[in-house]
C-alpha cells in the first residue's frame, strides 16, 4: 500500500532525526585514511606516547603450523563471564572442555584483589573438578583489554574498557596478579606461557587451518582487531629485528576517535551514550560498533522519536523504553530477523519493554532504526578491515572473525562483505571466516607455538654445543 501524505510527512520528520547514521562511501574512505594515519602514529616510536591507537606488539611472531601438541589450561576474561578451559592439541585435532563462571557486576567494578581472587577461586574449582590438582600445565590467558606487553607472558594493563573498572590494576602485570591470587587462595602454581588478547586468539585459532589468515577481529561486547605487521614497520619494537621478521600487532582500534578526529560523524546519540558511560571520552569507535553499546544507541533514538510524537502514541512514560541500558543489543538482531509485516520478533521485544498499543507502523520504524544503526556499525568495522587489507596489500587474505554481534546479527556478515569489497584496493581478495573458540583454542595455540619454538631453540643450542 502506498504511503499516505501524512505518513510521508512523518517519515520525513523521522529521517531528520536519524540521517546522521547514514554515511557516504566518501566519508568511509575519509575515516579509513584517518585510521591509517593514527595507526602509523601508534607504530612509530616518537608518536606512540600521544597516539590513541596503541598498536601494541604482542610478541607473537609465528602462526601455528599444525605440528603443535600438548595439554594446556586456558583462561578467558573479557566479557561478563570468565571461562576456564582444558585444551588438548594434537596436530590439527583440538579437544576442549570448559566451564563458564559469572563475574558479578560488583566484582567488575570492585578492586583488583577481588577480581583476581574470584578468578583464582574459579581456577581452583575447575582443576578440582577435572582432577588436575598438583599437575602444572602450561597456561594461556586470554585477557581482552588493552595491555602493553613486555614479553609473551608479561602484560601490563593500560586501561580498562567495556564494563570493567577494577581499582589497582592499571599499570600492573596481569600474570603477577594471577600468581599472587593463586598463592593467596591455595598453594597452586601455574606456568603462564602467554597472555593473549581475544583478537589475537581468534586469529591464531583460524590460522591453525588457514595459512592466509593474517587479520583477526572481534565484534562482540567490545571491538578490536589485530594483524601481522612487518617488523621493520614496528618502530616501537624494542627487541631484535631478527627472523621471523614479523609481529602480530594488537591495534586496540576501539580508541580511534578519542582525540576528536571522528567528531564529524558522531551523532547526538553517540555523545549522550558516551556521557553516561563509565569511561566518558574513551573508546569512541568501539562505542559506535560494539554489542555493549548498540542496543543503547537504538534506545536513545527510539526515546527521542517517541518524545517528538513520531512513535508509540500514548505510551506509558514509566515503561522500560525510558530506562538506560534496557534495550539489549540482542533485541537489534531479533528485530532485524523479522522478514514480513507480522513483525513477530519486534512485537515480542516491545512487549518485553512493557510498551502497549503499538501499531505495525511503529514496528516498521523500530526495525528501520535498528537497521540503520547496525549497518553503520558493520560499515565502520568494514572501513577498519579495509584499512588493514590495504596496508597488508596481499593478493589474498583471510580475516578471522568472532564475537556475539557478528555471530547473532542476521546481516552483519553480508553487510561487511559488500562494504569491504567496495572499500579495498581493486584486485585484493579477502575472505571473512568465523573463528571457533578463539579465546580458548587460540590462547592454548599461542602457548603451544611458544613451547614448540622454545624446544627448537634448545635443540639448536644443543646441536651447536655438540658440533
Ligand atoms: C578491548 C580489547 C578487546 C575488545 C574485544 C575492547 O574493549 O579494549 O582489548 O579485544 O574489547 O573484546
From TrEMBL:
InterPro entries: ATPase_NBD, Hexokinase, Hexokinase_BS, Hexokinase_C, Hexokinase_N. Keywords: ATP-binding, Glycolysis, Kinase, Nucleotide-binding, Transferase. It comes from the Eukaryota. GO terms for biological process: glucose metabolic process; glycolytic process; intracellular glucose homeostasis. GO terms for cellular component: cytosol; mitochondrion. Its EC number is 2.7.1.-. Pathway: Carbohydrate metabolism; hexose metabolism; Carbohydrate degradation; glycolysis; D-glyceraldehyde 3-phosphate and glycerone phosphate from D-glucose: step 1/4. It catalyses: a D-hexose + ATP = a D-hexose 6-phosphate + ADP + H(+); D-fructose + ATP = D-fructose 6-phosphate + ADP + H(+); D-mannose + ATP = D-mannose 6-phosphate + ADP + H(+); D-glucose + ATP = D-glucose 6-phosphate + ADP + H(+). Residues 14-207 form the Hexokinase N-terminal domain. The keyword rRNA processing does not apply. GO terms for molecular function: ATP binding; D-glucose binding; fructokinase activity; glucokinase activity. PROSITE patterns: HEXOKINASE_1, HEXOKINASE_2. Belongs to the hexokinase family. This is Phosphotransferase. It comes from Potamilus streckersoni. The lineage of its organism: Eukaryota, Metazoa, Spiralia, Lophotrochozoa, Mollusca.
